[in-house]
Amino acid sequence: MLATEILTQQHHEALDLIAELQDASGTATTSYDSTFKKLEDALLLHMREEEEIYYPALAKYDEFSDLLSYSIPEHEAVRQYLAQLEPLSPSDDSFQDVLADMRAAIEDHADNEEDDVFPKSIEVLGEDRIEELGDEIENMKNAVNKRKTATP
Ligand SMILES: [Fe+2]
Ligand SMILES: [Fe+2]
User: Fold this and answer.
1) Considering every ligand atom, which ligand is closest to the CA of 77?
2) From ligand 2's centre to the CA of 50, what distance in Å?
3) CB 39 within 8 A of CB 90
4) pLDDT band, very low/low/confident/very high, at 145 (cuts 50, 70, 90)
5) Per-residue pLDDT tens over the stretch 47-68
């Protein structure tokens, strides 16, 4: 599978989990805590896959010389939102306010990747290379999941 397809899927999965958590407003149930944990794990892994595999492969090319300078700070902002959300409960207003801000930031960032960076990367690096990067991402994902099941 193309790296860009995997990463696009992950954007949608994250936004679906965010929508679920937005329904949690005012309803204190522990199942939403596990939904948040799932979202946090998914976003952190997604950003690692991009930062350690996908972005470095692109950054070698002139067409992507400014990629890291705006993408990494945007990821950093998402990590800060996650840290703010961590001690809060999904039923709290404060959680929902931060979540709404994080959702907007992720939507902007994901739109830019899906509309601009992803198609351009296929053009510049070629489909075969983007497919290889997809394999590397799958390997990282599998290694992380294996570790997770080993340490409950
Ligand atoms: Fe990204
Ligand atoms: Fe992304």
Assistant:
1) 1
2) 7
3) no
4) confident
5) 999 999 999 999 999 999 999 9
Angle between helix axes 3-22 and 127-150 (nearest 10 degrees) is: 50
Packing angle between helix 118-125 and helix 3-22, nearest 10 degrees? 170
CATH class of 3-150: mainly alpha
Surface-to-core class of residue 48, CB atoms within 10 Å of its CB (0-12 exposed, 13-18 middle, 19+ buried): middle
Q: CA-based Rg of the chain, rounded to a whole angstrom? A: 16
Question: Letter for the amino acid at 12?
Answer: H
pTM: 0.93
Q: Which two tokens stand for residue 22?
A: 């937005």
